[in-house]
């Protein structure tokens, strides 16, 4: 038996060479790396604590709740602390931090995060109520908790935001992009969102990093709360570039609201398919004039068919 | 060895307290709960029966088809009946129903559902044909069945609708939200949709609960068939609030059609990015006038750049 | 013990009958069938080679890179070759091809594909850089590689396009629809896309089969680069029906650009929510005039509320 070289050798050498040529898309290190699957597991465990009995595989009885919660807290504490310490280790300023310092910082962050669970439940109970009050297609609050993608996105946002506030790198975005992938709803973990927040349908929603949203706000599918600026890219890091929405604001489907200085007052309703780049005073309704439609016989072809 | 209390005890007590404070987002009960993963498995088994040989892991030969179908029917009958009985048990009116009554009702529903499989295949064969006829990018009907998200969404809708018609709570919506998550296409299981239905691309489509759609209808990405009303939320429960589309209607991408009294006649084509809140007579084409565009040199900044 | 018939027998016979009635949605054959799950595994292995150390479960050290790459190449070579040979076997012209011919053709294709890995890394390094330069919300290139759905979609497109160019049936579309499902970004594997391509947010983007895109192009959520024609469906097979974009073009969210003869020149910026069906000369900015908005008191109801 001879362990001859095979005809993939040249290919493998070329790939290794390309790793040297492009170190920025190569990450070799003796350091541990974030475990995305584990982070998603942690997200679901947190969600099970937040809504006990809804997402569990088996029935959950009140007399055993203490043990179920205890087991999940233990899992989260152990695993999230480790992941947070790995994430902290990726920051430039900590390139040389000893591991024990990172672990200690991670423990503190996770402890603080876990203490927020009752407050998160307060917020999420208002979100469930807002969905039920706002959607005639909702038959029960159970249906909302079991199946509404908007609630999944908001739950993930509220969890990710708590980690974001504590300067955890990478993990908040990994969690929010997981929810984005499942729901088509892209809420940056840096956004600030009040109580009774309702997202209906939700696919295509984008809520940018520096957006501020008050209480009792409703957002429909395809809405962008986005950035607007004459400057470019990384030059805008940290600048407030996304809009501010007051309380009791409703934004219907397909509408775009842009700009860090765009302030939407309390009790404003913005109609669908509207493009907003200026502030709107409180207590007003805004809508684009519905476009003039052209009706013509089926034979006349104005600009052809849109086909694929 | 001593089983001392640990420093999570206070946290766990606070979480338990929050369960008492917000019972509406807490579900402790001796009752069994719906198993979402099992429901998704059942959905895929049904799909394997509907399109034999396309989604199976191994090759399927005609001479063994009887056994493969039989095994899948057995799986579905056993598991779906149990899940339906659990779902029926969540309805308020059945809070006190004995389990045997729920099981009997569930058996009847699942038997009726399974008898619809040949009829579902009739419908779905027309949907596959419509996709092939309508999309120049389709190279074969196999490609459509294997990879088109529109067909996944329509298949799931047609399955969920059969359960919805039989008043099964929660499960139809769980199935349709699974397809929504995979495809970005949100078809409420309550909608009524005819033969030869084609969805292209599909991300961002919303089809509301009381929508009615005829035969040979084509819908593109980002289309909303939605509700419109001056009344609010739960007050509209059960009211017809989404549009009616006739036969041979095409709605291009990004268009919004709203309202329960909005009737789109036969052979109507609605262009892209159009906002429709009134009925349209048969045999007409409707389009928004393309917006006047402003061309300017790259240096003039009209309303700045939209950036993130 | 008696193996009696059960009451599902009639149902099963009816289903088998429906298989005979609709052979086009039935695929019984002694041939092997494509394994979608395995294809997705292969996609992720390729991605791990393209961005080593980012998506692995364990840390990856440079001194072991050769072995990790070798193991993954071996996995891809073996499995992808088999899947490609199955895909080639589905083509009408090869109905009678002997298996050895298909295997040989598949081996050649996979060898050629694997040789493209260093070139793919060149392209993808430019895409990562474009995302970092273009997005003020990006904190590091690591964040982009670990969490940006746009990069996932582009990576999958670049892989699928290499198979598409070599006339592999079905598989490129299965891969691109997987990315579409995860990201809401639908890039047809037939499209041609240059370097430094950046997709932000991305949900709802559609890029059609015959689209051509230059270098340094940025596309935001909800953009369609689609077809436009007065002819229908399969009659357009192979015709150039999607637009051409030059270099340094930016298209903001919700905009639709249609037509095979629509050419967008170099250095063009197209604003959000714009509908473009004609060519645009180089070095210009184009935007729809923001719609005139109607502000009214909260009590006046112009066209009611859009509700669900």
3D architecture notes:
The structure is a homotrimer of 308-residue chains. With 308 residues, the first copy, chain A, is α/β, with parallel strands linked by helices. The longest helix of chain A has 25 residues, at 65-89. In chain A, 41% of the residues lie in helices and 14% in strands. The N and C termini of chain A lie far apart (57 Å). In chain A, strands 1-4-7-11-14 form a 5-stranded parallel β-sheet. Chain A has a 5-stranded parallel β-sheet with strand order 3-6-10-13-15. In chain A, strands 2-5-9-12 form a 4-stranded parallel β-sheet, with no helix packed on it. The first copy, chain A, folds into 2 domains: 31-185, serine acetyltransferase, domain 1; 191-288, Hexapeptide repeat proteins (UDP N-Acetylglucosamine Acyltransferase, domain 1, 3 Solenoid), CATH 2.160.10.10. Chain A has 8 helices and 17 strands. Chains in contact: A-B, A-C, B-C.
What does this entry show, briefly?
By secondary structure, chain A is an alpha/beta fold. Chain A has helices at 9-21, 36-50, 65-89, 99-115, 117-134, 141-147, 149-165, 171-183, and strands spanning 186-187, 192-193, 198-200, 206-207, 212-213, 218-220, 224-226, 228-229, 244-245, 250-251, 256-258, 263-264, 269-270, 275-276, 284-288, 293-297, 305-306. Chain A has 2 domains: 31-185, serine acetyltransferase, domain 1 (Orthogonal Bundle), CATH 1.10.3130; 191-288, Hexapeptide repeat proteins (UDP N-Acetylglucosamine Acyltransferase, domain 1, 3 Solenoid).
